[in-house]
Design a protein that fits this description.
alpha+beta; 2 domains; 434 Repressor (Amino-terminal Domain); four-stranded antiparallel sheet; about 160 residues; about 35% helix; NE0471 N-terminal domain-like
């Protein structure tokens, strides 16, 4: 399944805290990579490099420099779940669309052909960088077998 990271926090003990589009929060211990990938040991001593880590476009991973990065897949797979938070609707929509598409085995291009929504727009929706119309969301939901539901939150 395709997961995207909404935001990261770099903790002092070489722990990356990642909040995913789904709202799931995971911690990933970068020191777990030292044995297999000794190049990551630089992060123990170069605290500026650690603190300057950036989220890659559309939440696809964590970038340190041209030689070091973490993929969203390894953070998702090897990270420890520490909780779940509420996320903005654009992230909920992005996660729902990409999850449903992958669950039925469609590429973005195939979904585009079936829905009439451009592949570029689907990519932007799944990356939570688009502001789609209800018509566009409806077209995607029809193909993916999704239903839009609104519910009142408890305050």
């Amino acid at each position: 399944m395709d997961h995207n990271i909404k935001e990261i926090k770099m903790k002092d003990n070489l722990i990356v805290e990642a909040t995913f589009f789904s709202g799931e929060v995971k911690e990933f211990d970068v020191s777990s990579l030292f044995k297999k990938h000794p190049e990551y040991k630089i992060l123990e001593t170069d605290r500026e490099l650690w603190k300057k880590a950036e989220l890659l476009p559309q939440g696809s991973g964590v970038y340190f420099n041209d030689d070091l990065d973490l993929t969203v897949e390894e953070i998702w797979r090897d990270g420890k779940t520490i909780g779940k938070v509420s996320v903005e609707p654009k992230f909920t929509l992005a996660f729902a669309i990409s999850s449903a598409r992958e669950e039925i085995g469609l590429s973005q291009t195939e979904l585009s052909k079936l829905s009439g929504v451009s592949q570029c727009d689907i990519s932007r929706i799944e990356g939570a960088v688009a502001n789609p119309t209800m018509e566009t969301i409806g077209k995607l939901c029809n193909v993916l077998g999704l239903e839009i539901k609104l519910s009142k939150t408890s305050a």
